[in-house]
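Escalated from tier 1: C2G holo job.
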Amino acid sequence: MKRVITYGTFDLLHYGHINLLRRAKEQGDYLVVALSTDEFNWDEKQKKCYFSYEKRKQLLEAIRYVDLVIPEEGWDQKSSDIELYHIDKFVMGDDWAGKFDFLQEETDAEVIYLPRTPEVSTTQIKNDLKLK
Ligand code: C2G
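Tier 2 regenerated the structure:
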């Protein structure tokens, strides 16, 4: 059983997120999504989410590729998550390329960056809606 983990905010869920989750699941048999909490988003990413953590969690749990959703409360939990959930592959979109290579040294997990889906982002959606 190959176990995969990925991290993100997943606010205003869109097809770019779904493409990422589908390809992350294709890397193994079980996908854990570490979902950024509202506090983490605001304190560390200066992102104010449209949907609360609970609502974003509910949406993710409805996706067929997702097997487990856990909270992401800080930048430094990745190594311990990988150990705790016996993760074989750590997957992120390539806007993060290189940023998590240290995990390959610190843990037994393989680090994989997948191409982002072009032309869609939560920020773009918000900006487009402002223009309506
Ligand atoms: N993504 C993608 N294509 C897009 C938009 C997003 O592949 N058009 C991917 C991102 O690369 C990321 C995932 O979808 O792997 C979630 O994106 P965000 O919700 O924006 O997550 P982010 O703010 O990058 O948080 O500790 C890591 C952070 O929690 C990642």
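The longest strand covers residues 30-36.
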